[in-house]
Design goal:
The chain is an alpha+beta fold and 287 residues long. 23% of the residues lie in helices and 40% in strands. The longest helix is centred in the N-terminal third of the chain and has 26 residues. It starts with 5 loop residues before the first helix and ends in a 13-residue tail after the last strand.
C-alpha cells in the first residue's frame, strides 16, 4: 500500500463508487452569514467593522503606535480572535463538514485537543480514511479499503506535515514559547489585496509564510513548499475564510488548499462543537 494524500484518497474512493447525492444533500456551511462569496464578503466586512474599534482603542492605549512590529501584529491577532483567556479555555473541538477534491465530495469528522492532538475521519464511496496523532508519537493512518485494514505510520513527508498542522493554535498565539521564530516579511499583495506577510520558522518544521489582513488581523493565508513522497517540490497555498465565533473564539469555516496554483481541496466546516468530550485514546493508533 503506497502513501497517499487526502485528495488521492478521495479520487480513489470515487473510482470505487462515487456517492450519488445532490447538492442539497451537502448544504454549504453557513456559519452566521450564509453561503457563497457575497456572504463571505459581508462576513468579513461585518467582523472587520466590529473589531476595528477594539484595535483602534488598543492602539490609542499604546500611545498611538501602529501595528508595525511582529509583536504588535501577534497581540492584535490574539485580541480579535477572542483574547488569550477565551483561546486558552477552548481545550477541544469536534468539527463536522465536507471536503471536496478532484470534483468529488466526502464528509469528515475531526477531533482536536490541546496542544497538538488530532484525529481526522473522511468517509465516502464505501471507504473511510482515518489519520491521527497524539502530538508525541509518529502520526498514523488507516484505510478501511486496505487489506489488511490496520493502522500504519505515515511516510515521513506526509507525517511531518500532518504533525505540523496538528497544532491547536496558530503560530501567533504564544509563538515564542512554542519555539516559533516570526519575522516581518513586509507588505504583500495577494489576489489584489494588501496583506502583512510574516516569515515563520521552527527547528522541527519547514519554514512558511503567514499573511494577516491589516484591517481585521485575521490570518487569511499560508504559503509553503512541501515535498511529496513521489519527489519534487510543490507550492502550497492555504486560504482561510468564513470566520465565525465558536464559544467566543473566531474560527474559519472554509479552508481552501491550492497546489501549484490550482485548487486541490476545499473544506467546508458545517458545525464545530467546542470543548467536546474527547477521550485521549482516540488519538492513538489502534492496535
Amino acid at each position: 500500500m503506497t502513501d497517499f494524500t487526502i485528495s488521492e484518497f478521495i479520487a480513489r474512493a470515487g473510482d470505487q463508487g462515487r456517492p450519488q447525492a445532490s447538492d442539497a444533500a451537502f448544504p454549504r456551511g453557513r456559519g452566521l452569514w450564509g453561503a457563497g462569496e457575497a456572504c463571505e464578503r459581508r462576513a468579513m466586512r461585518a467582523l472587520a467593522n466590529f473589531f476595528r474599534p477594539l484595535v483602534a482603542l488598543t492602539l490609542a492605549w499604546a500611545g498611538g503606535a501602529r501595528a508595525e512590529s511582529v509583536a504588535d501584529i501577534a497581540r492584535f491577532h490574539v485580541q480579535v480572535m477572542g483574547g488569550a483567556k477565551a483561546l486558552a479555555e477552548l481545550q477541544t473541538v469536534r468539527m463536522t463538514g465536507r471536503v471536496t477534491a478532484a470534483g468529488r465530495r466526502m464528509t469528515f469528522v475531526m477531533y482536536a485537543a490541546r496542544p497538538a492532538s488530532v484525529r481526522l475521519e473522511i468517509s465516502g464511496g464505501g471507504r473511510v480514511l482515518v489519520q491521527g496523532t497524539d502530538g508525541t508519537n509518529p502520526p498514523w493512518e488507516l484505510d478501511t479499503a486496505a487489506r489488511p485494514a490496520r493502522a500504519r505510520p505515515m511516510a515521513a513527508p506526509a507525517g511531518r506535515a500532518f504533525l505540523a498542522d496538528a497544532e491547536f493554535d496558530d503560530p501567533l498565539v504564544a509563538g515564542a514559547a512554542r519555539g516559533f521564530v516570526i519575522e516581518d516579511g513586509g507588505a504583500a499583495v495577494r489576489d489584489g489585496t494588501r496583506l502583512l506577510r510574516l516569515l515563520v520558522t521552527r527547528a522541527d518544521a519547514l519554514p512558511f509564510s503567514l499573511f494577516v489582513d491589516p484591517e481585521t488581523f485575521f490570518v487569511v493565508r499560508r504559503e509553503e513548499e512541501r515535498a511529496p513522497a513521489a519527489g519534487g517540490v510543490r507550492q502550497i497555498v492555504t486560504r482561510y475564510a468564513d470566520f465565525a465565533p465558536v464559544d467566543r473564539v473566531l474560527m474559519p469555516f472554509r479552508i481552501t488548499v491550492l497546489a501549484d496554483g490550482k485548487v486541490e481541496q476545499e473544506t467546508v466546516v458545517e458545525k464545530i462543537e467546542p470543548n467536546a468530550v474527547i477521550l485521549p485514546q482516540m488519538f492513538a493508533a489502534p492496535p
